[in-house]
């Protein structure tokens, strides 16, 4: 199964399971969880069921394209469902079967993982899913977002698409993944991966990045003050991305990291507050 | 009585390994308590489970509670009857106990005759009692961390998906938020999606589960795992490195264990041991394999939860993962060690330690300055000093290597530095010091063994604590993002263990002075830093078993060298139990109380104003004490010093017995206060023994 078929199959599977197929977000993010459909979708009481592939950037994971398993830019497939279906683990396993992983042939394990995103003030309990020792997915029942207790609870499934595809196609290097029947993943992304690593580790102007972080932080706060929560959240995404770049350059110490993460978390808390006030309280009152 | 077997299975999504045993223990205790409280019994009890299920299997539970007779005594016969009829008081008593007049008996007691009921209470059906117990369980089982999934009022370690409850052949219909309950259970995941089966009766439980590839009894599973780890290399000169903790974790990760032998690429054996073991055991939960000499080999054994017939596919997958992870590590290792560790130091200029405290390079400069000062105070040889300073210079260099840029190995900070230092040809003590300067990493972690490690550790931690507090980030409540408590504890522990005569006060002052290069002094915050250390000293001494009042009375030594405080505390703890010392405390408290009520304690002493013999005698004793104390304290000889205090006790007692301190004559009164005040200041040089708690009754005598 090619990489693109895998995405198509997962989309079909989850659409058939009742999910709305939304599209990747058009901004840089370190993980699919940052998509506003997940962040806002998990807040409040409205039911949600969505699925989407999302390009993720983790500058720190860049290896100039040379490491067979690591890259600074990759894809996740994300499913968010609220409230959580009782058979969600089976649905997930069925989706693996759909893309060619026969459950009977493997050691599939749900290994405890207390997931948290300190940047979003979010945490949840669940697992890393291991396929013969390899982490292929993150499976999480969100408990908090932006420091707020959640009910109903959302379940989030995150598939690491490249890793899964490497397993399914039995290749040892991401560059050899068949993206489609005619082109390999490496043909598409190797040079890009190489350049972006060079940018992240060497060329990125750290002075500029620090400045940008501050500017977008201020803008997010200003927009939230005006009640413009979606644009304010976009600014948060910018901050998060610049933070990731600075982190990749290694110019933020372990000690200082916590402070930067705290600043982004404050923005997330503001966004959640404004969002709930603007779009949820009214509905909740109505439902009373 | 007829007996039946009881089974309760709680089916879950995979439980975290560390959650299993505490919950199992709780479940067993809860069931045993339930049996006891309800006058039930069982012939055999097994409480165990797997990552996906807890079960309680109780064989031979009587179907009925035994009947019991409740004895109830009512009003006296005089009150209970009027004109041969039961009075309203008696009828009320009957009503309360659901009895009729026909049940009434009369009981004679030495206090008179009373009406009495012997109420026979038939035993309840065990089925109902078991049902009640089972239904109350889910909310009650404690877990370190719980989550909600579907129901607002039900939290558990992970979602509960099915219940199976049987008493004999019959299903107990449990009502639990609508979680399905019956005789259906689920098979091992590798038998396919959602494969379920029926449990005909409790006694068949373990066998039916086994037929469905679930070894439900944890003890059996653990033994199977341990045995299979031994069997893997039966005839070969290899053995699995014993790791009982890992075996338990793995046992709580699988339902149907199969040991599988695998290996990683031999080339990776050049990597330092901890890098390999952190990949193999910590990340992947595999067992390392040693040769007969005890060396690591490129083999490992993992416990599969898959179909034993599919072990070959599963092995290939696991090997791929390990090779990929080790390839990552080796890439960093080669990249990093292609240049000397020293060459990474300049890059610390680009790493911010903390916004207000500058870069990591600035921190290293401060650590070096503080180390130099400590070396001077400790009067170390030039050779030692050079090693310590070299260690300080290199201590943080590994932070900017690529190995630590990688999240998976951040726990190895210091260890990586040590490895690279050795490759770069640094002195071995310097290299070890780089690793050890992070110690202790927690309350029970070992302290640095090398001098380099100990000094750099103290300097680094002092700088962090004094610096972060000066930046206004004193920990509040449980929030301590910079782990300052741990750091300050570490400083105190090392100073105490090493027995260095370095006053904490001086160390703090020096560190704060050095910090001024990067952040301006702030008197108020700097005092908070000193107080913060006082709290940590108190924590440490409490750990060491020193009573709080002993510590209270040695307040003037809390920022002295911890060893000095310890010597004083031990001496005081020992002597306080003696009788002479006990009366000395009382005498001293009396003096302290009088002085507390005195308006001015700065009267000067005039020996010409002594009137009574006892005044003069006390004064003479005081002079003698002063000389002796000065001698003893010069060498921190606390035990002799305390004994000197005891010597003056009788003179104090006689003084209080014979002399009226607060007399009419103002000049005499002031002079007597002055004498007591001088005594007090002499005592305070050793300890404020008025803070020692003694029995109140004796004190009042």
Explain this structure to me?
The complex is a heterodimer of chains A (288) and B (701). Chain A is of the alpha+beta class and 288 residues long. Chain A is built from eight helices and eight strands, in the order αβαββαβββββααααα. In chain A, strands 1, 2, 3, 4, 5, 6, 7 and 8 form an eight-stranded mixed sheet that branches. In chain A, strand 6 (134-145) and strand 7 form a beta hairpin. In chain A, helix 6 (206-225) runs antiparallel to helix 7 (229-249). The longest helix of chain A has 34 residues, at 254-287. Chain A is globular, with a radius of gyration of 19 Å. Chain A starts with a helix and ends with a helix. The model of chain A has no long low-confidence stretch (mean pLDDT 93). With 701 residues, chain B is an alpha+beta fold. Chain B has 25 helices and 21 strands. In chain B, the strands form seven sheets. In chain B, strands 1, 2, 3, 11, 12 and 13 form a six-stranded mixed sheet that branches. A four-stranded antiparallel sheet of chain B has the order 16-18-19-17. Chain B has a three-stranded antiparallel sheet with strand order 4-8-7. In chain B, a hairpin with a 2-residue loop joins strand 11 (160-167) and strand 12. Mean pLDDT of chain B is 92; it is low at 697-701. Classes of the chains: A alpha+beta (288), B alpha+beta (701). Chains A and B meet through helix 3, strand 4, strand 5, strand 6 and helix 8 of A and strand 9, helix 9 and strand 20 of B.
